[in-house]
Amino acid sequence: AAPSALPRDLEGRRVVISAGGTREALDPVRYLGNRSSGKQGYALARVAAQRGADVTLVAGHTADLADPAGARVVRVGSALELRDAMHTESRDADVVVMAAAVADFRPVELAASKIKKGDRDPEAIRLAVNPDILVELVKARSAGQVVVGFAAETGDEAGDVLHHGRAKLARKGVDLLVVNAVGDGLAFEQEDNAGWLLTAEGDEHPIPHGSKSQLAATVWDAVVPLLGT
Ligand code: CTP
Ligand code: CA
């Protein structure tokens, strides 16, 4: 292998990372989905493996991404499948990272056969709230397990990106929350950061603009000091 400047500071650690978007089925051929590429979660998996971790990547739908070298990949479709996989895989993990874009809602009804156009007005799609997987994982976590969440925030009349990030950190109960500022040129923005890394201890580190690999390295740099021996 090529010589690497990366630290091997995740050697012997088991990490579980979710990535990509969930798809919520309407019928056998249709779904509600989102535009998540999965790239950030894949970068986290790749960098963790390079730093010596035993990596499991739970992947929803992604852009056409190659499996990260050294990671075991578990594929899922819906939020409920992602939830099952994360509970199973995280049981003996040292670190759990929720980078997936989980659909907040799913259709109440799943048609057994393809919905036909027919000759009447379409019916509204009724939605149910999906479970908050991250909150569940925090509740179920084993002693010493580090849990990391992601949030994309724009800021609005209620507050700026950092305000929403702080509120989400508290609501989710995670050790680390990576807050990405999205939608550039927002009037509410005061600083030109890519976002913040917020810790449960109240530390707030600005994240400079950079690649997804750089952000992955920043996240692992913040996780390592939280790991026990
Ligand atoms: N998340 C999750 N389960 C859900 C929704 C979100 O585990 N049902 C996780 C995401 O993977 C992410 C974090 O929670 O790590 C924040 O997701 P986000 O969509 O920003 O938060 P929500 O709680 O859904 O709030 P909102 O969409 O209203 O901002
Ligand atoms: Ca959401």
TrEMBL record:
Its EC number is 4.1.1.36, 6.3.2.5. Pathway: Cofactor biosynthesis; coenzyme A biosynthesis; CoA from (R)-pantothenate: step 2/5; Cofactor biosynthesis; coenzyme A biosynthesis; CoA from (R)-pantothenate: step 3/5. Binds 1 FMN per subunit. Keywords: Decarboxylase, Flavoprotein, FMN, Ligase, Lyase, Magnesium, Metal-binding, Multifunctional enzyme. CTP binds at residues 104, 114, 131-134, 150, 168, 172. Residues 15-229 are annotated as: Phosphopantothenate--cysteine ligase. It catalyses: N-[(R)-4-phosphopantothenoyl]-L-cysteine + H(+) = (R)-4'-phosphopantetheine + CO2; (R)-4'-phosphopantothenate + L-cysteine + CTP = N-[(R)-4-phosphopantothenoyl]-L-cysteine + CMP + diphosphate + H(+). GO terms for molecular function: FMN binding; metal ion binding; phosphopantothenate--cysteine ligase activity; phosphopantothenoylcysteine decarboxylase activity. Its cofactor is FMN; Mg(2+). It comes from the Bacteria. Residues 10-224 form the DNA/pantothenate metabolism flavoprotein C-terminal domain. Coiled coil: none annotated. One of its GO terms (cellular component) is phosphopantothenoylcysteine decarboxylase complex. GO terms for biological process: coenzyme A biosynthetic process; pantothenate catabolic process. Catalyzes two steps in the biosynthesis of coenzyme A. In the first step cysteine is conjugated to 4'-phosphopantothenate to form 4-phosphopantothenoylcysteine, in the latter compound is decarboxylated to form 4'-phosphopantotheine. Catalyzes two sequential steps in the biosynthesis of coenzyme A. In the first step cysteine is conjugated to 4'-phosphopantothenate to form 4-phosphopantothenoylcysteine. In the second step the latter compound is decarboxylated to form 4'-phosphopantotheine. In the N-terminal section; belongs to the HFCD (homo-oligomeric flavin containing Cys decarboxylase) superfamily. In the C-terminal section; belongs to the PPC synthetase family. This is Coenzyme A biosynthesis bifunctional protein CoaBC.
